[in-house]
Batch of 2 targets.
Target 1
Amino acid sequence: MDFLFGHISTTALSLLVALLLDRLFGEPNVLHPLVGFGKWVDWCRSALQLPAQVKPCQQRLNGVLAWGLAVLPFVLVLWWLLAVLPDWLEFILGTIVLYFTVGWQSLRQHGVAIAEPLRHGWLDDAREAVGRIVSRDTSSLSEGEISKAGIESVLENGSDAIFAPIFWFVLLGPVGALGYRLSNTLDAMWGYKTPSLLHFGWCAARIDDVLNYLPARLVVLTYAVCGKREPAMRCARQQGCRWKSPNAGPVMAAGAGALTVKLGGKAQYFGETQERPCLGEGREPTVEDLDKSIWLVDKGVYLWAIVLCFLI
């Protein structure tokens, strides 16, 4: 493929095409591969999860086996296909894999779906929209709390759904992007500290933390460059470590600082009020700040695309 596009590498070209496809078409509404993967994950869990009274070490061991059974077959099959296919088919397959693993347009659509009704004062519709992408209770959120929840989700998922898959694609190719996306999905399904998943989901949660560590730090820099640099870096450095997630904390703190708004604070989860650390600095967020958070992620994607085209 290089001879067709001069100095642009196939990796860079594949990245640009995949981002363009995602921006134009978003995620497919039917036959999305992750739907089938979710059913496979449910089977792996039912086959290997042990009762809660079994020793934690045995539950963790079965969690490791379940993670391997859920993720590795797909990664190995893709690795084999890329090894045997001709270059032009390898390029097409890699581009399709990245397209399916990046959720840029989907994240934008979720953010806009919250902002639009909020702009018109339709709080019930906004609460329903934000409830689709956050795990907290949303039935009684105020306008400011809806904006805050939406911004937090956009900033955090900007790292998980967009920048991290691109990072692993550039580093390890389509196999890296697929492995990351499947691992991240597994963490979203198993990585909870409930009695049934505390030990069984331990492996999925820890692997996701490891895979997100470097991309999250690059996203901190990205949000700082694309927003208010000094408060973004200061908030990430001083506040990020207080958050329950070692990767989401710095990312959200940097994003809040870049937007000069306050995030975190009290939130309802499953009927219980949790006092979360405060992130960012400045004023309480509004719907306009939700719009700005979507644009912040957009600018980050454009920045990564430009920089990577020069570097790879």
Target 2
Amino acid sequence: MDSGISITAEKLVEVTAKYASKIAVKEEEYVRAVGFSSREMGRRVVTKVSFWLVTQQSTLLYCKLCNKGPFTKRGMFLHLTRMHHSEIKLLLEEEIKREIKALL
């Protein structure tokens, strides 16, 4: 079961970085990442994890993981995917496990 969680988390890293960077995420991006039946769960997980990644002051974005910034939306996305990929994946794995426990 853990390998499935790890695979799902990996698929959601870029979607999470995009959402956290205040870039619009389309419905089909969730479907592509986790499938049609799990898209709502995917959206909840992405929203919760994104909260811990980025803070916004006026139009500028700052990384909560390393306190770097300011970034533009695109710069924030690139920073998160390049510098914090593994941390985001771990946060997603933990949140997915919580979602599954809530269902059981």
